[in-house]
Amino acid sequence: MRFIRFVERLPAASAVTLVPAWGLLDGETIYPLAHAPYLGVVVQGAARPVTSVRLVAPVTPTKLVCVGRNYAEHAAELGNEVPPEPLIFLKPPTTVIGPDEAVVYPSISSRVDHEGELALVIGRRCRNVAEADAASVIFGYTVANDVTARDLQKQDGQWTRGKGFDTFAPVGPWLDTAFDPAGKAVRCAVNGALRQDGNTALLIYSIGRVIAHVTRFMTLEPGDLILTGTPAGVGPVQPGDVMTVEVEGLGTLSNPMIDEAEARRRGLLP
Length: 270
Fold this sequence. Notes:
The protein is mainly β. The chain has 2 domains: about 1-55, SH3 type barrels (Roll); about 65-265, Alpha-Beta Complex (Fumarylacetoacetate hydrolase, domain 2). Helices cover about 10% and strands about 35% of the residues. It has helices spanning about 70-75, 150-155, 160-165, 205-215, 260-265, and strands at about 1-10, 20-25, 30, 50, 55, 65-70, 85-90, 95, 105, 110-115, 115-120, 140-145, 150, 170-175, 185-190, 195-200, 225, 235, 240-245, 250-260. The strands form 3 sheets. Strands 1, 2, 3, 4, 5, 6, 7, 8, 11, 12, 14 and 17 form a 12-stranded mixed β-sheet that branches. Strand 19 and strand 20 form a beta hairpin. The radius of gyration is 18 Å and the shape is globular.
């Protein structure tokens, strides 16, 4: 099954604040849900066409748990060694945006990179999950872009600022509970030109290993998001560019890049 979050389509000048709703997506039809599907699938309301709404990020995480350098060629392209165990960092929930929403290029950075990734959503509260049992805590999969201010990441020596800007985690377009992540292509294009073309078969640490590792020291909550790592080919983007991440058989996620002045004009930044 595929699940989405959506809002009404309103005129661009509308000042109405929209509250996203959850829905079950069946072809081109949405069946509204009473709450997040990982709390139970309860249809509530009349079915409607997907063309009548705007999709937003299909996640509501308490935290984004990310795996660094989980593809050997990506580690090598940045001059890094493969880590001896999963290398974990966090992104705040304020980084999350949805399909077609704008990523804001920070004025304090001079190098912002795309990082296309497969992501998964946790379905139940868990701790100390055995690697063999990891599938039992996964609700579904989605597409993500771990946007990174590379210069600030290198300057700081730790990754909170470089990874943590508002809008730096596009996610979508939906959650797929039937997706099989084995041997799937992970690609990212910028303005239609292919930059990244990897495959989940090349993950250094499997999804099960990552979940087992993370839950040894951290409780995961329903809705938490895990980004599994990016393949080789990361590179810079500029305002005006459009990043498109595709995970084979799962979906495609596109987001434009804009500068801070444009973001403020649109009311996206205070």
